[in-house]
Amino acid sequence: MPKPAHSLHNPEAGNHPLPEDPREIKAVLRATKRCYRRHPYFARRYEQRGAAFARSDAGYLATLTTHPQSHVDDQVAWLAGVLACRGMPRWLMEEHLELLFEELSQAVPARADDFQKLRSAAAVLRAERQAWIRQADFEILSANFASTAGPSLKNAGGLLVAAVCDECCGLPHSVSSLTLWLSNPERFPVKWCSAVSETLAQARALVATKKRTHP
Fold first, then answer.
1. Which of 19, 119, 158, 159 lies 20 to 30 A from 92 at CA?
2. Residue 72 phi/psi, 5° resolution?
3. What's the distance, CA 27 to chain centroid?
4. Can you tell me the distance from the alpha carbon of 140 to that of 144, in angstroms, rounded to the nearest whole number?
């Protein structure tokens, strides 16, 4: 009898490790669902195909916790960089890692120390983001975008600001790959597209001051 298909397996993602513990599998699915609720951009842009990749990527991240922290950090940095150049700022990975930690730790408390590695990897991404735009300014710019552009897409302002931070961290296509969709005038009204341009300009003005002193 053939082995049942793994609920996290995505044929398009190839063959990579996935959790086998049913508790971990359910935790990964819960974390991914929470991330999608928090960031509706995922579903709007990438639809079901994107959801399949999100589940399989999250499953792979969960398996990294059996490795040393340095390996976790390296793999997270690689995957987050790839995704940032495909329209998913690393802030999304940062938040997904935190949710994975929460759900996995609650599901399998005995492995909480292992799952802490995901939170530590998220902290690395956060520190790199905040090295360019501090959290208070990040939140102000995000809120200003929401009030100016309207409520079409929750947390879109944060995506824009995060993409600028990624650009400063050496990912040159992070902004263009996001705005290709997020400022498409066939998809969003003029008011929204203008707010996108203004938020990007404000974020870049902030990082310009850092660039003069950043090592």
1. 19
2. -60, -50
3. 18
4. 6
Q: Kindly indicate the confidence band of residue 52, based on its pLDDT and cuts at 50, 70 and 90.
A: confident
DSSP per-residue string spanning the chain: -PPPPPTT--GGG-S-----SHHHHHHHHHHHHHHHHH-THHHHHHHHHHHHHHHHHHHHHHHGGGS-HHHHHHHHHHHHHHHHTTT--HHHHHHHHHHHHHHHHHH-GGGHHHHHHHHHHHHHHHHHHHTTS-HHHHHHHHHHHHHHH-SSSTTHHHHHHHHHHHHHTT-TTHHHHHHHHHT-TTTS-HHHHHHHHHHHHHHHHHHHHHHTT--
Q: ∠ CA 102-15-6 to the nearest 5 degrees?
A: 60
Number of Cβ within a 10 Å radius of residue 145: 25
pLDDT digits (tens, 9 = 90+) for 74-121: 999 999 999 999 999 999 999 999 999 999 999 999 999 999 999 999
- Amino acid sitting at position 207: V
Report the C-alpha gap between 164 and 204 in whole angstroms: 7
Which residues lie below 8 Å from residue 9, measured CB to CB, with a gap of 6+?
A: 18, 56
